[in-house]
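A quick aside before the break. I want you to see a complete sequence-to-structure record at least once, exactly as it would be stored in a machine-readable document. Don't worry about memorizing anything.
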Amino acid sequence: MLVVTAVLTDAANGFAAGIVAASPHATGTYHWGGLSLLQGGVTVQAVGGQTTVSGGGLSPASEPRHHIRSAGRRGEKMVAQPDAL
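That is the input. The structure line, written in tokens, reads:
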């Protein structure tokens, strides 16, 4: 269980680090659905490049999931889309 918790924590913190890496002075609220079948949604609150992470704990596989999908062309933003049921 300790290994799973470490992996989920690293995933959530990696999401926050990616936000700041993409925009060093990021401000806003960002959401990610987490690792499929394992992790609940992650919310990152950023203010001037400083982040606070919430969520991202172990979750049952039955919760609705979201994934991040690229539009497929270079330079276009990635958009979170709900999975089809």
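Two observations worth writing down. Residues 2-82 form one domain. Residues 2-22 form the longest helix (21 residues). We'll return to this after the break.
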